[in-house]
Amino acid sequence: GDSVTQMEGPVTLSEEAFLTINCTYTATGYPSLFWYVQYPGEGLQLLLKATKADDKGSNKGFEATYRKETTSFHLEKGSVQVSDSAVYFCALRKGDYKLSFGAGTTVTVRA
Amino acid sequence: DGGITQSPKYLFRKEGQNVTLSCEQNLNHDAMYWYRQDPGQGLRLIYYSQIVNDFQKGDIAEGYSVSREKKESFPLTVTSAQKNPTAFYLCASSPRDRAHMNTEAFFGQGTRLTVV
Could you give the CA distance from residue A4 to residue A97 in angstroms, rounded to a whole number? Predict the structure, then answer.
């Protein structure tokens, strides 16, 4: 079945450092790919998405490119802030079926 | 504003009691989902429903029950058969029509259930 494998954390960075979280997927066909963010005690919010190969999703300085040849959707941000401390989830959805989530990566940014 | 509302935000349950978590959406979405999240863990699917009056078990359905009598509502009951119910519960919804295939799910703010 469809699945997502996400880089394990936790990840601890200093402010203004470069962040990358790896995400690879297994799926037949052409799923859509998502990154969600969860702040402490809250639900998940959509951070960015890409619906077809070579699409780049971007939001709040974060970017991820849908790479079909490597089945990857790595999340990057060039200069993180303390407010980016959160748990990040990679996910995929194909058609009208349910989402498949990665295990989540906890990111802590220190001032 | 459109969205998903979960209530209550915090819930305490005595051992042996059933409790029901509420999830309401006004996004006109056909599909709704319940996930469980344990500390430092990812999301595990409990139940999902793709249409009114129909639902399917997810990966960890034992000890839980759901109903889907209305499109807007998908309550989750945590029964006394659930051996370790203390967790953070998240409800989500997504559209299923042809125009919104492959679209994202929208999440509520969660309910934190604690067994005392």
Answer: 15
Does the distance separating the beta carbons of A31 and B43 come in below 8 Å? no
Which one is predicted more confidently, B74 or A8?
B74
A9 at B interface, C-beta within 8 A: no
Take residue A82 and report the two structure tokens written for it.
């303390």
As given in the structure block, the two tokens for residue B113 are 């259930």
Place of tokens 């659930």: B82
- Contacts B40 to A, Cβ<8 Å: 106
Write out pLDDT tens, residues A11-44. 999 999 999 999 999 988 889 999 999 998 899 9
Using alpha carbons, select from B82, B112, B114 the residue that is nearest to residue B8: B112
Mean pLDDT of all residues belonging to chain B: 91
Strand positions, DSSP E, B8-86: 10-13, 19-25, 31-37, 43-51, 54-57, 64-66, 76-78
Mean pLDDT (whole number) for A70-92: 96
Residue A75: strand, helix, or coil: strand
Q: CA–CA distance from B74 to each of A60, A85, B92 (Å)?
A: 32, 31, 10
Chain A residues within 8 A of B45 when measuring between CB atoms: 98
